[in-house]
């Protein structure tokens, strides 16, 4: 099966997941990927609240970035665990591969729900559908099948996941189906204007950091690629993922890449348009993601070495797409 093709057995598998979760008597752990984004936090928190509404012993293991910490309540956090108890069920959400699941080991009975085409379909039940705009959209279907009564408290994080992965309905993955799902969630009492406004909040340090990042902007291949990086003396990088979305709007560009050095290597965030695949670029760098948005971590490299690898991978993809 093409990794980027819709899952033809989507509803059959999702009904099975709902049946399994309704029947589970032991603990259910809900986890997502490292460096979680809005979809990761929104989908996992929404499912957690739905399972709690069903009376399940559920645990939400996640560490949201600062701009999303308004969503969970303090008592909803659970500490990371090194080993799951006997009889536990793990629901891994929005994680393109098991190694990206953070906070819990991938063991016990594993349910994998994701929309990344590169997902290897790990777990006992894997529902992977890249035609969905967000994992939160899939969680919406699952919660419907669970028969949970929708509330604004459940719908708000689910809509958050859809909003963030569609760029507030600006990206190409915004389909009529996505808008119908969003409209339905709004009908459950989500305060859209308040939510979208709150999602843009950033601390004062973010705006000081922005100036330093923008001073690193560079153009390559006649402006087809725009890059920027987090200067190593810039300090905190919290919420710096936003910057790739900022530079992607340079006129004439088809690829934008943002790099930041970490202990394990250089994290690379990629966005693309115009027939260029960010996913292809990320795969060449050992990462993954979607066609318009992807990423990778180049382990053991410094920024200069990472730039060299990125330029090579982007040039190859630009040639494939007919730009070079």
Automatic annotation (TrEMBL):
Gene Ontology molecular function, alphabetical: nucleic acid binding
Gene3D superfamilies, sorted: 3.10.310.30, inorganic pyrophosphatase (n-terminal core) (3.90.1640.10)
Domain of life of the organism encoding this protein: Bacteria
InterPro entries to which the protein is assigned, alphabetical: DDH_dom, DHH_sf, DHHA1_dom, Oligoribo/pAp-PDE_c-di-AMP_PDE
All residue ranges annotated as the DHHA1 domain in the record: 239-316
Every DDH domain range: 28-162
Identification of the protein by name: Exopolyphosphatase
Species of origin: Thermus parvatiensis
